[in-house]
């Protein structure tokens, strides 16, 4: 049995029926890691011993007849910007290379309650800044669909691990697309929940008004299962929403009859690969066949989303990353003669090029004389973007777009930062408006997976899940398996 290729819900059934044990499953996943990790490079840290210890505990509970939760005993991978006590946390940065976190993130506390098994921490762009996982201090991750291509980012390790069978489920974080875009590049399902649905406590802050943690999984059912466990109000995060958490698996119905799905025309024009656009149009057609009504809508401020994000996110990042000063955490340059010199040297050496670029951008747009011209203006545009969506949702239940304008590109592409930033155009507005967004596999272009993005109303995750599930059950895309090869 190649258990590593199965879903959370299938494995849960096998565990409850005692057809397999958690130890057997965990060993299969680590065998798979031994086999493919050298070529995929999805992980920064692995904890086989800890995982097997937990699996043994779970097996004892099952043997004793205890009821188990859907994620109990099922090995998952955690993005390395989420705090898990007992495993180092690096944010893929030299500055935190040897940092041991002293508490669990809220999502980890929730997962521990369900006795899940943690495999390790996944590779990412440094401090989640990037779209390819290449800005990691440690290594670049490869895409299991074609090892010569990027896995996307910044949660590239979490998505590649799922596609390669190196984890059954995983967590990512999404500030401007970092769950959805890698999910789409790797043929996975990914959800960025509504801002506030999931506590950010213990997720190293990048841009606090945009960050959300969410699942990356093999199918829609698994995404609902992980979401069930990680959502919920938390006193440690004042922006976490004090709203009831439904059982998201109840939303998994095959029914989109009378659902109104909007296709925003701005997402299909210049900059979008026509072959990708074609796959999304076919997805819309499928939805029509399944009983939904598809209409064209307009989100007129879309063209300003990227430039305003690249003001707001660096501004927040420059403040959030101020704490990495060589005094309290991680790496410290020991050659300096004074405290200010030490801080400057530590930060210059400890942060990579992209992170330094963001900090400089952020401090610039927040400095007096420029604040009104850049930061304030960007905040005003952010309101306009949010209003575009409010208006679209007066007539639509959800919106359908490409998750990314392109499929995964070559690791050798060496694009300039601005070109890479522009490719975030499809995902960024969703964070700016605080809405839930989801990517589901919907086709292939040049042998690489294409993701369809579903965007919902605030707290509208159930509608997204229902629509995603209906499409998934009517198609075979989610069943395709990454070949782990490379183009010749
Ligand atoms: N690619 C975007 C950036 O570089 C988004 C990153 C993210 O969502 N963490 O900022």
TrEMBL record:
The active site is at 79 (charge relay system), 154 (charge relay system), 178 (acyl-ester intermediate). One of its GO terms (molecular function) is transferase activity. Coiled coil: none annotated. GO terms for cellular component: glutamyl-tRNA(Gln) amidotransferase complex. PANTHER family: GLUTAMYL-TRNA(GLN) AMIDOTRANSFERASE SUBUNIT A, TRANSAMIDASE. Heterotrimer of A, B and C subunits. Allows the formation of correctly charged Gln-tRNA(Gln) through the transamidation of misacylated Glu-tRNA(Gln) in organisms which lack glutaminyl-tRNA synthetase. The reaction takes place in the presence of glutamine and ATP through an activated gamma-phospho-Glu-tRNA(Gln). This is Glutamyl-tRNA(Gln) amidotransferase subunit A.
């Amino acid at each position: 049995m190649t258990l590593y290729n199965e879903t959370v819900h299938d494995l849960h059934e096998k565990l409850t029926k005692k057809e397999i044990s958690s130890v057997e499953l965990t060993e299969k996943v680590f065998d798979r890691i031994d086999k493919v990790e050298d070529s995929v490079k999805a992980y920064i840290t692995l904890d086989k011993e800890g995982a097997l210890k937990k699996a043994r505990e779970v097996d004892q509970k099952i043997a004793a007849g205890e009821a188990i939760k859907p994620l109990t005993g099922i090995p998952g991978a955690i993005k390395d910007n989420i705090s898990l006590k007992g495993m180092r946390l690096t944010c893929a940065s030299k500055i935190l290379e040897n940092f041991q976190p002293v508490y669990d993130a809220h999502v980890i506390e929730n997962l521990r309650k369900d006795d899940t098994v943690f495999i390790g921490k996944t590779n990412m762009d440094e401090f989640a800044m990037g779209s390819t996982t290449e800005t990691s201090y440690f290594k670049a991750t490869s895409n299991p669909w074609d090892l010569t291509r990027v896995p996307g980012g910044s949660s590239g390790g979490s998505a590649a691990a799922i596609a390669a069978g190196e984890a059954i489920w995983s967590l990512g974080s999404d500030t401007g697309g970092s769950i959805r875009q890698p999910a789409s590049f790797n043929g996975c399902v990914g959800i960025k929940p509504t801002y506030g649905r999931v506590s950010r406590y213990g997720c190293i802050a990048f841009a606090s008004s945009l960050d959300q943690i969410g699942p990356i999984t093999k199918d829609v059912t698994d995404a609902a299962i992980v979401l069930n466990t990680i959502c919920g109000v938390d006193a440690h995060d004042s922006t976490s929403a004090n709203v009831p958490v439904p059982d998201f698996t109840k939303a998994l119905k095959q029914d989109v009859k009378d659902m109104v799905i909007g296709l925003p025309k701005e997402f299909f024009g210049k900059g979008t690969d026509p072959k990708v656009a074609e796959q999304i149009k076919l997805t819309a057609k499928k939805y029509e066949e399944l009983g939904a009504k598809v209409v064209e809508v307009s989100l007129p401020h879309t063209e300003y989303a990227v430039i305003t994000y690249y003001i707001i996110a660096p501004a927040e990042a420059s403040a959030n990353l101020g704490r990495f000063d060589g005094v309290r955490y991680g790496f410290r340059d020991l050659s300096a003669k004074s405290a200010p010199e030490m801080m400057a040297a530590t930060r210059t050496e400890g942060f990579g090029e992209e992170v330094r670029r963001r900090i400089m951008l952020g401090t610039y747009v927040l400095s007096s004389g420029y604040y009104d011209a850049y930061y304030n203006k960007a905040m005003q545009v952010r309101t306009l973007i949010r209003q575009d969506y409010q208006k679209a949702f007066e007539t639509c239940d959800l919106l359908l777009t490409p998750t990314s304008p392109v499929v995964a590109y070559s690791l050798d592409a060496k694009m300039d930062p601005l070109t890479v930033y522009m490719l975030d155009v499809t995902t960024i507005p969703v964070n700016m408006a605080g809405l839930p967004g989801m990517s589901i596999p919907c086709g292939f272009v040049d042998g690489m997976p294409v993701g369809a993005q579903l965007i919902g109303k605030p707290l509208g995750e159930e509608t997204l899940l229902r629509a995603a599930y209906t499409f998934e059950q009517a198609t075979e895309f989610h069943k395709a398996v990454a070949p782990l090869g490379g183009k010749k």
